[in-house]
Amino acid sequence: MSVTVGDLLKEQKEDLELELITGEKSLGRKIPGADLNRPGLALSGSLDHFRPERIQIIGNGEQSFCMKAPRAALQKALDAMLSFTTLPCLILTHNLPAPPALAQACRKKGVPLLRSRLDTAALVGDLSAFLEDRLSPRTVVHGVLVEVYGLGVLIQGEAGIGKSECALELLKRGHILVADDAIEAQHRRGGGLSGICPEPLRHYIEVRGLGIIDVKLLFGVGAILDRVPIELAIHLEPWSSQAKMDRSGLETRSTVIVGVRIPQIKIAVSPGRNLAILIEVAALNQRLRSQGYFAAETFNRRLIERMRSSPWGKKSAP
Questions:
Q1: Which residues is 194 bridged to in the sheet?
Q2: Do 125 and 152 fall within a single domain?
Q3: Which of 25, 60, 143, 297 is the most core-located residue (most Cβ within 10 A)?
Q4: Do both 128 and 146 map to the same domain?
Q5: Distance between CA 248 and CA 115 in Å, rounded?
Q6: Phi (first) and psi of residue 255, to 5 degrees
Q7: Quick one: angle between helices 5-12 and 120-135, nearest 10?
Q8: Is the pLDDT of residue 289 over 70?
Q9: 282: Cβ contacts below 8 Å, ≥ 6 apart
């Protein structure tokens, strides 16, 4: 994913109250990351720790410095700072007037100079959120994403195994649908994984034999969400007497999506098994595990301790 200054101006002009002062021919400059920079030291001539690859935010302090600094020294510092071709743009906050030396240097170096009516804190927060959302690694995965007891559960399996039918049963039991068939998985800052429903598929689900169903109209607006953190993956598999299934729960599986590892559980599908109830219990159990309680390990430890303390578990003395 990549974002240019032109994309930023086009998509966030109203939300961030942006206007372009100069640099219309350089709007193709790329913004590589969501981090922003306050160039106070760079304006004074020190580039030792300057981060030119970041958007430069000019607030009250920087604008005041530019208005009061000796013009020759400021011009030299600006020429050095704006010589980096990786510098995306500068943004003035508080609807501040552009210092003449700054506007002249931006025109000379071909660097876009923008202005926002927002104060610095509001602009930094909203702009960082927009860039993080646009620049985070993402991919599309096949399956159904539901929120079960507040936990984002990704249900996967081969075509026709019953993923959508399982989601319908969960909806009837009061849980929430996020996406059916295609889920946009996004790697969030801090290592989290978000599941997002692509706009064309939003609040629709497809069930073999019934066709396309509008979940919002059938179950109400409270039955749908646009996104949710993905915290558990459940893989539905056809039942086979030869398949080796975990009976104790001691095995731990995981799957990696966009570089994020999440727990995975495999559930065999066979006549008579209520998959919705199994997924509900799996979600509740995963919540306990995330809080540090692992039922299978606790049971196994207590069983071993009991065996050791029993007469049959002790070795006879020689």
A1: 186, 229
A2: no
A3: 143
A4: no
A5: 61
A6: -135, 150
A7: 110
A8: yes
A9: 153, 232, 234, 265, 267
Q: Confirm whether pTM is higher than 0.85.
A: no
How far, in Å, CA of 113 to CA of 32, rounded? Answer: 17
Domain that holds residue 62: 3-135
| pLDDT band with cut points at 50, 70 and 90 for residue 88 | very high
Residue 303's contacts (CB-CB under 8 Å, 6 or more residues apart) are none
203 and 150 part of one domain:
yes
Split into its structural domains, the chain has a count of 2
What are the beta bridge partners of residue 255?
262
Residues labelled as active-site residues: 142, 163, 181, 247
In this structure, the answer to whether residues 53 and 182 fall within a common structural domain is: no
Q: Identify residue 224 by its one-letter amino acid code.
A: I
* Mean pLDDT, rounded, for 52-56: 95
- Which residue type, as a one-letter code, is found at position 91? I
Q: How far apart are CA 116 and CA 119, in angstroms?
A: 8
Q: Is residue 318 in a domain? A: no
Question: Which residue pairs from 166-171 have beta carbons closer than 8 angstroms and sit at least 24 positions apart in sequence?
Answer: 166/236, 166/275, 166/276, 166/279, 167/205, 168/205, 168/207, 168/213, 169/274, 169/275, 169/276, 170/146, 170/276, 170/279, 170/280, 171/146, 171/215, 171/219, 171/223
Task: Tokens for 30, please give them.
Answer: 């790329």
**Residue 259 carries which DSSP code?**
T
